[in-house]
Amino acid sequence: MRDTFIGIVLAVALVAGLFALDHFYPHSPSTAANDVQSGFVGVKAVGAWQLACPPGPSGSASKAPVPFSLNPNPRTAAAVVAGSTLNLGRCRTTLVFRRKDNPKAVILIVGFRLAGEKLAMIVRFPALAKKGDTLVMRLAQGALKLPVNDCGKDGCLTVGLLGQQALDRVLASPNAVLVFPAIRNGKPLGMLVPFDGLKESVAAMRRAES
Predict the structure, then answer these.
(1) Which DSSP symbol is given to 128?
(2) Mind spelling out the 3-state secondary structure of the chain?
(3) 40 and 190 in contact (C-beta within 8 Å)?
(4) Where along the chain do its domains lie?
């Protein structure tokens, strides 16, 4: 177990040199989040996270499929979707990782959307797994295990509904490490995910849809 953890840490250090966050955040998360009120429409950077709320009835949810294309633009994303649908709110908060040597290449997207009273966590990542594998999110206290819902040539998709206990653990952590399934019996690959601004962004998302 210790050797595996060391391998993950080394992999995180290596991967961090290859990928960059989608944007920088000059303002404090709380200051940015306070600008978001009920019915908010637009895009707002909240810490490391980006909150996006398209036009739509406040407080409504639509039963829509979740695309797993690594293209974050829904207008041009490939029409590949998960096998099931969720009642999702109109807003989403996401963290996008791109290659440093090619900013147009999206490598990883971690996102959250309201699903009724719960929160759906959606992770899109390259084809490093197969359907039925497990994606692990290591937190400050414990870890969450998320099944890989689907994989295709455009990447893999994991969608999980967080109960209150799991959500509390996520929002109480300063960051997390996503551990991808090992490929061909190799060492697991990990990606450090900063949670700076996530708590404020989720609260702002709830206000926007209230």
Answers:
(1) -
(2) CHHHHHHHHHHHHHHHCCEEECCCCCCCHHHHHCCCCCCCCEEEEECCEEEEECCCCCCCEEEEEEECCCCCCCCCCCCCEEEEEEEEECCEEEEEEEECCEEEEEEEEEEEEEECCEEEEEEEECCCCCCCCEEEEECCCCEEEEECCEEECCEEEEEEEECHHHHHHHHCCCEEEEEECCCCCCCCEEEEEECCCHHHHHHHHHHHCC
(3) no
(4) 2-30+60-196
Query: How does pLDDT run across 4-40, given as a tens digit for each residue?
Result: 433 444 344 444 444 555 555 556 788 888 889 999 9
Question: Do 37 and 125 contact (CB within 8 A), yes or no?
Answer: no
- Determine the CATH number of domain 2-30+60-196: 2.60.40
The Cα 42–Cα 38 span in angstroms is 12
Rg over CA atoms, the chain = 16
What pLDDT digit, counting tens, does each position of 125-152 carry?
888 788 888 898 999 888 898 888 888 8
